[in-house]
Amino acid sequence: MKANYLDELNERQREAVEHIKGPLMIVAGAGSGKTKVLTMRIAHLLRNGVDAFNILSLTFTNKAAREMKERVEKILGGSEARNLYIGTFHSVFARLLRAEAHRLGYPNDFTIYDSDDAKSVLRTIINEQNLDDKHYKPNLVYNRISAAKNSLMGPEEYQVDYGVQQEDMRANRPMVGKLYDMYAKRCFKNGAMDFDDLLYKMYILLKGFPEVLHKYQHKFKYIMIDEYQDTNPAQYEIIKLLGAAHENICVVGDDAQSIYSFRGATIENILQFEKDYDDAKVVKLEQNYRSTKSILNVANEVIGNNKGQIEKNLWTDNSEGEKIKLVRTMTDNEEGKFVAETIAEQRLRNHYANKDFAILYRTNAQSRSFEESLRKKAIPYRIFGGTSFYQRKEIKDFVAYLRITMNTQDEESLKRIINYPVRGIGKTTIEKVVVLANDHNITMWQVLERAREFGFKAGTLEAIENFVVMISSFHAMLGKHNAYDIALQVGKSTNLVKELFNDKTTEGLARYENIQELLNSIKEFTETPTEDGELLEKTLGTYLQQITLLTDADKGSEENSDVVCLMTIHAAKGLEFPVVFTVGLEESLFPSGMSINSREELEEERRLFYVAITRAKARLWLTYANSRYRFGQLVNNESSRFLEEMPEKYIDRSYAGGGSVRNSPGSGLWGNSSAGGGGNMFDKMQKKAPAQAASPRPMPKPAGTAGAASTHVPSPNFTPDDPALMEAGMEVEHQKFGFGTILQMEGAPNNRIANVVFPKGGGEKKIMLNYARLMIVKK
DNA sequence: AGTGTGCCGCTTTTT
DNA sequence: GCGGCACACT
Fold first, then answer.
1. Which among A183, A440, A455, A585 could disulfide-bond with A640, CB atoms 3.0 to 4.6 Å apart, if both were Cys?
2. Which three-class secondary structure state does DSSP give residue A557?
3. What distance in Å separates the CA atoms of residue A202 and residue A97, rounded to the nearest whole number?
4. What are A280-317's pLDDT values in tens digits?
5. Is A168 one of the catalytic residues?
6. Confidence of residue A594 (pLDDT cuts 50, 70, 90)
7. Which helix (H) or strand (E) covers residue A28, if one does?
8. CB A428 under 7 Å to nucleic chain B
9. Do the Cβ atoms of A749 and A737 come closer than 8 Å?
10. Is A551 (CB) below 7 Å from strand B?
11. What residues does the UvrD-like helicase ATP-binding domain cover (predicted)?
């Protein structure tokens, strides 16, 4: 360890690092060296005689945990760092629960259900109850249950809590409480916990078993919490319990970056800290080392529109830098094209590498147009987040075998693979098994094991017995073989791998590769030495527990590869990039249409915008499109209200539309760019008259659109007409294909299809009127 | 019993 | 515009 490590810190940072005993809150503005302080503080603790085994450091994402581990290792040199307990809330608690779950009546090898598994269990229950799953949407019920657990409310309390019951009654969903109760019981029976249980049951455990609480209080004498502003009540209470004995709690947070209230996080926790611990020391880190003055000033001004913040003044010594570039395009595709072209240009002009660029968006669905345009220009990229690797069908199938091997109670997994690949145990048989299990009060697996007693048909019985023999043979390997050996055996016996190998379609090939990747990851897992504070055996159980908590952003692979990063703003928190494109700055997209109905929600969107801006070190582009496809339908959006909150002084509104850049010879960049529209491109930016909202879809008339040949610009007064009115012979307008004539009508009355010929829009097309809508021009 | 087709709902954000 | 799911067809 370097002797002078404290010299690298500024005064405030040093103050935070040197405060070892007692509660400490670090209010760390964006880019103020938070991670540095956290890692240095760990080093400093060790320097001062604290045993690494006694330090617990909790983060929200695996990425953050990994980064912290690596940086501590760099300071300390590997061996001592290994004894630290660093991880996400969920992974750390999962590990502790694996040691203690039996006290709560769960198997220690309990299965962890991800949200898809959980919703699937709920769907089953909702159907069993003969409730309409249109009304009791599994997603919605899941969210209610999740919110309840995150505020430490069990099924019993839920069903008698007046406020909660009122809410459910008002929403006309009186059965949610009952469903919660049944869901909890079903998970228990399956030997499974969902994500929220990892927190909720941890709390129950610590609260209900003083000797367990005492044990971990004694073990974790020093606790550090990153992103404290994102903790929910469950996490808050657990931290309080664990820290109560020593009160060596160090929390780091920034109220301006609180963006997870939808997951139950409450900003109150950070505001409350000083009240909870009256001897708490508070250190504010206000110097930003990351961004230019332009970027930081814009960020500060934007966030100033929020009320009730912890007072702080974020400043920087960095140069002023370039202005923030604001870009408007006609469509989402053109937005993608613009960003790809700008990346190519910036790479040359300023010698950036691919990995210096990030494209940040509000919703995962937006990634598509950027993927396409980057691929066209052969710019390597990687999408972080989105559908996780472990959520893919083929992976879930394979993992279901591993889960059932570990935990035969897990009926969710059992149902998934009992007839996959096909082995003659069909729907009727499964239903029969479910009924038998209920009647005899045993698990489905036990019914299968004793199938002979229950009078199945000979063929079916044979199929069942073969299945039971196979799974039992996997099960028998548990004590003697590591995860990889078992996985290989599963692959062989089930024919899963062979089946996918023989599938020569593109998707089949991709699936085969995914399975290979899964097997590789298991191999890697078994061969990598243990790195955490406790001896972690390389068993199937530990492996399964880990992967459910991983998202594909964590999928070990070449972390440092040179690629453009695409991710949601949420996923970008804690990261920084020299050049950032924040895209899709449109009303109802960002801020999200779901979040414009209350001040609280809107302020969270604004904090999200703040996070997006402050990811940028040197250059920042903000883009938005006039119209984009949503649900396969073209919609027009106004520019985001946030754009109007930025100080003019630091904004370059002419970048994409201005003449000088366009004329630059040889670049070929702007000539075919879609940004066309000339100087008046931003005319609607300045104000949004409230009156406009009432009139149907006002469209700014674009002048001289470059993309007009391929994209029809709808009439200003475009209003779709009722499909029932459409008749052959009418002249109509389509938002994308332009004007056309209906040749013929077909389809059922509630799903009418028009055969329309569009002279300028690509000839004859069948238009499903329920989706793509038409306006009648002439009858 | 297994495979194929059509329909519905969906998009905030994540462990 | 897609994927998951229900139903219908063989």
1. A585
2. coil
3. 7
4. 999 999 999 999 999 999 999 999 999 878 888 999 99
5. no
6. confident
7. strand A24-28
8. yes
9. no
10. yes
11. 7-292
- pLDDT for A776 equals 75
**Where would I find the H helices in A209-284?**
210-219, 233-243, 268-276
Does residue A137 belong to any structural domain of this protein?
yes
Catalytic (active site) residue A34: yes
Q: Which of A124, A156, A190 is the last residue of a domain?
A: A190
pLDDT digits (tens, 9 = 90+) for A434-491: 888 888 988 999 999 998 998 888 888 888 999 999 999 999 999 888 899 999 999 9
CB atoms near residue A437 (< 10 Å) = 18
Q: Report whether A328 contacts A684 (CB < 8 A).
A: no
Q: Is residue A139 scored above 50 in pLDDT?
A: yes
Q: In this structure, are A586 and A558 located in the same domain?
A: yes
| Count of structural domains within chain A | 5
Give tens-digit pLDDT for A187-236: 999 999 999 999 999 999 999 999 999 999 999 999 999 999 999 999 99
Nucleotide nearest to A463 (CA to C1'): B1
State yes or no: A31 annotated in a binding site. Answer: yes
DSSP A226: S
Query: How far apart (Å, rounded) are the C-alpha atoms in residues A133 and A448?
Result: 30
Full domain range(s) for residue A150: 111-190
Which nucleotides of chain B are near protein (any atom < 7 Å from a CB)?
A: 1-3, 7-15
Residue A565 host element (H or E): strand A564-568
Verify if strand B has an atom below 7 Å from the CB of A391: no
A645 and A742 part of one domain = no
pTM of model > 0.90 = no
User: What average pLDDT does the structure give for chain A?
Assistant: 82
> Of residues 370 to 389 in chain A, which lie within 7 A of strand B by their beta carbon?
385
Q: Determine the Cα angle at A671 with ends A668 and A676, to 5°.
A: 150
Q: Which nucleotide is the nearest neighbour of A629, by CA and C1'?
A: C1
- Give yes or no: residues A74 and A205 share one domain: yes
Last residue of some domain: A138, A170, A190?
Answer: A190
3-state secondary structure of A31: coil
**Cα–Cα distances in angstroms (integers) from residue A119 to residues A109, A116, A435, in the given order:** 21, 5, 22
**Is A654 annotated to bind ligand?**
no
Q: Dihedral through CA A236, CA A241, CA A246, CA A247, nearest 10? A: 20
**Which range has the worst mean pLDDT, A130-134, A256-260, A659-663?**
A659-663
For residue A568, say whether its CB is under 7 Å from any atom of strand B: yes
The reply to whether A258 and A145 lie within a common domain is no
3-state secondary structure of A325: strand
Strands (E), A432-511: none
Cα of A101 vs its chain's centroid, Å: 28
Q: Do A559 and A648 belong to one domain?
A: yes
One DSSP character per residue, A683-736 reads: TTTS---HHHHHSS---PPPSS-GGGGTSPPPPTT--PPPGGG--TT-EEEETT
Which of the nucleotides lies closest to A592 (Cα–C1')? Answer: B12
Nearest to A273, CA basis, from A649, A22, A472: A22
Angle, helices A367-376 vs A332-350, to 10°: value is 50
Whichever domain contains A150, its CATH number is: 1.10.10.160
Residue A418's pLDDT band (cuts 50, 70, 90):
confident
Token pair belonging to A477 = 């390997």
User: Nearest CA to A331 among A705, A752, A740?
Assistant: A705
Going by C-alpha positions, the residue among A122, A189, A180, A128 that lies closest to residue A411 is A189
Dihedral sign, Cα of residue A719, residue A722, residue A725, residue A727: positive
Nucleic chain B: which protein residues 457-496 of A have CB below 7 A from it?
460
Any binding-site annotation on A87? Answer: no
Closest CA to A686 of A270, A328, A323, A435: A328
Q: Measure CA of the first residue to CA of the last residue in chain A; give whole Å.
A: 83
Q: Is the CB of A632 under 7 A from strand C?
A: yes
